[in-house]
Structure formats: C-alpha cells, structure tokens
C-alpha cells in the first residue's frame, strides 16, 4: 500500500512542498509514495501582485506541472483535521464532505487579513488579501468613473502602513489618474497608528518610503487609528473625518484558522511553532509551512516572515522533510539566512534592501527592475519539465 503525503494548499509553500517531495521520491526511486495536493483549484494565485492593476491575470495554472511530476490534485476545501486518525475532511466541488487519509500532512493554507471589530469595517472596507476581494476592489475603482466628481469620490484611504499598504498606496495615484485623467485632483491617504512612516523598518528604508510618498502626493495620518467606517468615509479616533468613497483595509494578517485545529504552541499571528524539520512537536506526522509556520531562519533569533520569499523556501524544506521521514532519509533543518526586501513604490520606482538590517542597495528604476524580475518571473511556478522543476525545488539551492 502506498504511503501518502497530503499537502493542504496550493499557494507558494504548498506548491513547492509538493514539487520538493516529488523530487526526493524520484531520487530515492520511491514508487510507493503518493503525493497529493488538496486545494480549491490547481492554480497558484500570485498574491504579492494583488495591489496591481488587472489582478485577474495573476493566476498560474498548475495542472501540467502536477501531471508531469505525478502529483495528484484533489479539488476541495479542507474543513476538519483529525490528527489522531490522520484524516482530513474536506468539502468537494459538489458540496459533499469527503475524507482523505495521510501518513504525513503538510499544512500550507496560508494567511488572511485580520479584521478587528471596527464599526463598519465588514460592510464598507475593501481589501486586496485574496483574488476575489482584489477583483471586487478593482471593479469598485472602475465604477467610480460613472459618479459625479467630488472630494470623496477622488479620495482613497488605505488603513495600515505595512508593506501591503505602502505598495497599494504608492500604486494608487497612477491607477486613479488612469480612470479620472491627469487633471483631476485625487488623494491617497494612509492611516497608520505608528508615530513614523515605516516604523518597523530601517532608517534608510523609512526615508526612501517617505521620499517616494512625498513625490507621489501620498499623505500619511500618523499616530492615528480608525474608529469607524461608513459608506462616505472614515472617522479617526482623534475625531478627524475623512470623506472617501473608497477605504481599503491592509492592517495585519493572521494564519489560516485551520491551524486552530492542531494542538500546538502558536505565536501572536496564529502560526504554529515548529521544530527545525518544520514538524509540529506534538504531532510529528504534521508539518506546517509558509504563513502557517513560526520557524527560525538562523541561529541569531530571526524567524520567517509572512512573505512569499520565506514561504517558497519553507515549502521546499517541508516537502523534502515530509518525504524524508517516510523514506528513512535524514531531514534538512530549515535555514534561510539571506533576507532581502524589494518594495514597489509605484511611479516613483522601488527600493531594494539586503539583510535583516535592511540596508538599501538600490532605488528608483534600478530597484524597479529587480522588483519586476522577482514578481513577474522568480516567484512563478517552474516549467512543467521534470529536470527544471526538480532543480528549482532543491531546498539547499540558493533562492535569493
């Protein structure tokens, strides 16, 4: 009887976990190892690009890749994990509850935007967290053209000044001009509870973000929090009212709620704390990866962030180690010492940094070329070619 690795999720981490597991299975000539991916669709949604225009295009099909590597695809949405009986219950495309058993489980269901109980947030704020919600936001921007010009129509409030908020805010001036024309006064306002722009980043990176914001006309409301959101704008906790027909929530993410069904220690973002092999200590047959995993990247105290940069490598290690545990092969301890950031800053350009200290290495057009290379090529799935895919899936190969 074949041993079964079940990977839940087809995002960056899930996709690479499947390819990496298949790679080791071929190296070990393990014909009795079955690798399956359970997800709503056999596709990789390129989430880091959802702040851009034409978001529907940012989907990469995985059918051919999975077929080439003998990876089974199970269409459905996981709902319940029974770790005692090594079973995942999922809802199939017909709405029926179906059980899938496993010998090793890889949790790669990612993360989602955290939505606190703010008045009107659920009813009146958009987000670009998932493909569907980003599509709704794009259609909303298109619909504004048919409305009479007003300060509220021409204003977008971005709630949250993290990476997603910054990339969206700096992209929006061009997106609004494309709809309203160059002669229309528009406003993009970032509401950030921190006291400085990019407070979590290095001085050099913060200065670059501030310079780009100033040049693009992006305004910041620092040391501010949202009190309420309604159909015509937002009210801040300090009493300030901002009239806006468009409010986008980008403040904070948390691990997929499926993680709550596994006994284990979690961090403040709901990620499961894992050992060096990415196993959950209380359940060694279960591996967490990508945005589901709280994993140390090095020996000096850094941990993986909720970024595709870390998700890709986490996936490669998780898939390899899950297969290794069934094939009597030594696992690879997850390490990802190199860390870079490349932040898109709209028409201004971009900024590229290296190291956890975020040393700025390039800006503007030079950094924009790096950003385009990363988001348009590097993070996409490999070709449906066995040799190419397996070479790319080597956990020990340099990614950045």
TrEMBL record:
Keywords: FAD, Flavoprotein, NAD, Oxidoreductase. Residues 4-313 form the FAD/NAD(P)-binding domain. InterPro entries: FAD/NAD-bd_sf, FAD/NAD-binding_dom, NDH-2. The keyword NAD applies. GO terms for molecular function: NADH dehydrogenase activity. Belongs to the NADH dehydrogenase family. This is FAD-dependent oxidoreductase. It comes from Silvania confinis.
């Amino acid at each position: 009887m074949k041993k079964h690795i079940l990977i839940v999720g087809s995002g960056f981490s899930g996709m690479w976990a499947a390819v990496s597991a298949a790679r080791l299975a071929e190296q070990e000539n393990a014909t009795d190892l079955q690798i399956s991916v359970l997800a709503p669709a056999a596709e990789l949604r390129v989430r880091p690009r959802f702040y851009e225009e034409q978001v529907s295009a940012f989907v990469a099909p995985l059918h051919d890749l999975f077929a080439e590597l003998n990876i089974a695809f199970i269409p459905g949405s996981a709902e319940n994990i029974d770790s005692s009986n090594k079973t995942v219950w999922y809802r199939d495309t017909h709405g029926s509850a179906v059980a899938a058993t496993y010998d090793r489980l890889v949790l790669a269901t990612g993360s989602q935007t955290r939505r606190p109980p703010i008045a009107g947030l659920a009813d009146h704020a958009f987000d670009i967290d998932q493909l569907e919600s980003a599509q709704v936001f794009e259609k909303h921007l298109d619909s504004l053209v048919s409305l009479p010009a007003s300060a509220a129509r021409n204003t977008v409030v971005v709630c949250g000044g993290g990476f997603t908020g910054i990339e969206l805010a700096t992209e929006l001036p061009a997106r609004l001009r494309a709809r309203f024309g160059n002669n229309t006064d528009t406003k993009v306002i970032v509401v950030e509870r921190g006291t400085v722009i990019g407070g979590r980043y290095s001085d050099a990176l913060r200065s670059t973000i501030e310079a780009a914001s100033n040049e693009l006309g992006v305004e910041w409301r620092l040391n501010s929090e949202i009190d309420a959101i309604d159909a015509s704008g937002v009210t801040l906790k300090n009493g300030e009212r901002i009239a806006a027909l468009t409010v986008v929530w980008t403040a904070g993410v948390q691990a997929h709620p499926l993680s709550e069904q596994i006994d284990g220690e979690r961090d403040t973002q709901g990620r499961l704390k894992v050992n060096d092999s990415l196993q959950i200590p209380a359940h060694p047959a279960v591996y967490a990866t990508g945005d589901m995993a709280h994993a140390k990247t090095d020996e000096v105290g850094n941990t993986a962030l909720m970024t595709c940069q870390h998700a890709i490598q986490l996936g490669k290690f998780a898939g390899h180690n899950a297969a290794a545990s069934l094939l009597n092969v030594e696992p690879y301890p997850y390490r990802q010492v190199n860390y870079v950031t490349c932040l898109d800053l709209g028409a201004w350009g971009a900024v590229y940094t290296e190291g956890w200290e975020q040393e700025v290495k390039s800006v503007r057009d030079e950094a924009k070329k790096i950003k385009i290379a990363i988001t348009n090529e590097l993070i996409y799935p490999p070709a449906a070619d066995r040799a190419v895919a397996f070479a790319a899936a080597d956990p020990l190969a340099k990614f950045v």
